[in-house]
Amino acid sequence: GYRGRIRKTETLEGIKVVRTCLYPSKSSRTLPRLFSYLSFGMSSALIGAWGLGKQDVVLIESPPLFLVPFALFTAKVVRGKAVMMVSDIWPDILIRMGHASEKSMSVRAMLWLEAYAYKHAHAVALTNPGACRQISERFPNLQNVTVISNGVDTQLFRPDLRDESIRRQFGAGPDDSLVGYCGLHGLAQGLETVVDAAELLRDKVNIKFIMIGDGPTKEELLAKAAKKNLPNLAFYGRRPKNEMPAILASLDASLVTLAGRFPGTMPSKIYEALASGTPPIVAKGCEGEPLVTEYGTGRCYEPLDAGEMAQAILQLTEARQQAAGTRQACIALSRRFDRDLIARRTEQILTAIHKNESLPQVNW
Description:
Blueprint: E1 7-12, E2 15-20, H1 30-48, E3 57-62, H2 68-78, E4 81-86, H3 92-97, H4 105-120, E5 123-126, H5 129-138, E6 145-147, H6 164-169, E7 177-182, H7 192-200, E8 207-212, H8 218-228, E9 233-236, H9 244-249, E10 253-256, H10 269-275, E11 280-283, H11 288-295, E12 299-301, H12 306-318, H13 323-334, H14 339-354
Parallel strand pairs: 3-4, 4-5, 5-6, 7-8, 7-10, 8-9, 10-11, 11-12
Antiparallel strand pairs: 1-2
Helix pairs in contact: 1-2, 7-12, 10-13
């Protein structure tokens, strides 16, 4: 709806939104993605920032780090305090995924950008305490480091939305176990492991796999699944947002996959699965692992290990006696990450930043 527009200003729920043009790309290749990032950075700073007036705080979302110089320029234009909102720690995660070498020019440039961003930001907010420890160890001079975690709308994602008619649409009967992945089919997700796990469990006729979404690796996954001729795995395109809560609640297990061990990373899919009462099967090495193991809300597997993923699925789906208790544990844990609670906490943090006060303690 914005094609061909250089800049568009609108008001959404009382909030002024300024949109600027960019080159859109969902390619997995480096240059198209980099050009997409840079085109938005330039347009937002050169076209979007002017005329906004004085602002108190400027939130800078990272990744991608390539937007940082433009964002810091914007913060100076509007005279606001820059707050780095770090959802994934670049370039560390790219190195762990094997998509970049520490010796490459691009990684060295990102390491410089990372240090530059933290040095010039008034505060740095990460999504979990593990990420905070990681950054504080590498940059011990940082003063204002805090947690602003992702969360979930517990009024939108609810266990009572479980629906047998939805399960039938995906080929699952009352006695079947429906295992699903819902989200981006991207490089960091390691979704080839799901295809391999489905192959290992193809003789378990009561376990059905579904993968819902789109992304740069979907065509490769479709080709791989077709080559294996898997009767227990079905792919579906993106679904409207309003359909996802009922779909997630209708699963028996939600796959939260990663392409490697990523300390400091907290996949947001975990929160939605918990609130839906759907036990997550989570890749080890991320910050979701202790939530699953300590609170008994699901299972974990070694990233890219299809055998261990298959075993985790079997353990979870065959433990029907414990299923109700596991679902209740998920729901109870999700309340700690209710989005309203996190919004109030975030408001307190941003107010403290604006007033130059000490940041409030965050009990994650």
